[in-house]
């Protein structure tokens, strides 16, 4: 019971990865606020309390304790209500899992401002809003854990996801900033880049043989494979782990590097555009990063 006595908020917990994390945290002893607005994959159209209520029902059937919440993470007052639900229901909050997300994929030169803002608002602003709403409680009690869902689409790259990629790389930077700012209060912040076949990945094209092969690999990676890492990062067993980026891929776990200088050149008297081209460019070129996508880097079959 690694989370015995703790209270967790899991956003986007009406299905997929979020539901599996909520279930696993409840089994590990946590009381859980199951947040989900019950919207479509794009975040458009009618909303429903049913997905979140179904997750709560499963938790209760297994002997756990949970309450549902249908507020949107993308609005500051609503995010405050999500955290207040934990306080009103269970008297405290110890864990925030920022998992809620939508997709509006579009090739960059066709992406509309609305498509950009909708995705950034949920993923990046939502992660900030819910985390910020919990921060004062964490500070007062001298403890707390954040687990944010980032993505290899942001960490590495992908086609047609400028909005999603930018938001997810922003989440990684947000997590590091939280880790730095709140370490003195006993608060930890880490990221997971999850691999799973879920509603969030069901829109991946599967037309060419290469695309079909990639989807087949993803379908082997069930959402529950991400839950053990999330439970660990939320637990006291990870009390010394903060500011890190992990990934869970079927039965594999990864620790990601973070950007650091890899090559430097110096020129007495400074640089001109011409000397940059003549001296710096040849020195740097061997260390240039390729235009990889997530599927290029993680190209082997899951084991």
TrEMBL record:
Organism superkingdom: Bacteria
Family to which the UniProt record says this protein belongs: Belongs to the short-chain dehydrogenases/reductases (SDR) family.
Membrane-spanning residues: none
PROSITE patterns: ADH_SHORT
Residue ranges annotated for the Ketoreductase domain, each copy included: 6-203
Alphabetized InterPro entries for the sequence: KR_dom, NAD(P)-bd_dom_sf, Peroxisomal_Beta-Oxidation, Sc_DH/Rdtase_CS, SDR_fam
Alphabetical list of PANTHER family matching this protein: BLL2957 PROTEIN, DEHYDROGENASES, SHORT CHAIN
Lineage: Bacteria, Pseudomonadati, Pseudomonadota, Alphaproteobacteria, Acetobacterales
Coiled coil: none
Listed name of the protein: NAD(P)-dependent dehydrogenase (Short-subunit alcohol dehydrogenase family)
């Amino acid at each position: 019971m690694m989370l015995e006595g703790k209270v967790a908020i899991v956003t986007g917990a009406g299905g997929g990865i979020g539901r599996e994390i909520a279930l696993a945290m409840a089994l590990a002893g946590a009381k859980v606020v199951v947040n989900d607005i019950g919207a479509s994959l794009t975040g458009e159209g009618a909303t429903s309390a049913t997905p979140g209520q179904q997750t709560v029902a499963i938790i209760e059937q297994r002997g756990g304790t949970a309450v549902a919440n249908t507020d949107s993470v993308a609005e500051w007052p609503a995010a405050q209500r999500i955290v207040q639900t934990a306080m009103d229901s269970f008297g405290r909050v110890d864990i925030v899992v920022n998992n809620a997300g939508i997709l509006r994929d579009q090739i960059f030169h066709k992406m509309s401002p609305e498509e950009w803002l909708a995705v950034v608002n949920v993923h990046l602003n939502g992660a900030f809003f819910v985390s910020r709403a919990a921060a004062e409680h964490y500070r007062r009690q001298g403890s707390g854990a954040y687990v944010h869902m980032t993505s290899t689409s942001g960490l590495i790259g992908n086609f047609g996801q400028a909005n999603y990629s930018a938001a997810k790389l922003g989440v990684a930077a947000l997590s590091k900033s939280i880790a730095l700012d709140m370490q003195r209060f006993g608060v930890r912040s880490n990221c997971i880049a999850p691999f799973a076949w879920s509603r969030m990945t069901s829109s991946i094209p599967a037309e060419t043989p290469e695309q079909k092969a990639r989807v087949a690999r993803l379908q082997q990676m069930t959402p529950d494979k991400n839950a053990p890492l999330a439970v660990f990062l939320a637990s006291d067993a990870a009390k010394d782990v903060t500011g890190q980026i992990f990934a869970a891929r079927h039965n594999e776990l990864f620790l990601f590097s973070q950007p650091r200088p890899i090559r430097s050149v110096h020129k007495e008297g400074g640089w001109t555009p011409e000397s940059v081209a003549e001296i710096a460019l040849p020195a740097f070129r061997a260390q240039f990063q390729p235009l990889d996508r997530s599927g290029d880097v993680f190209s082997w079959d899951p084991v």
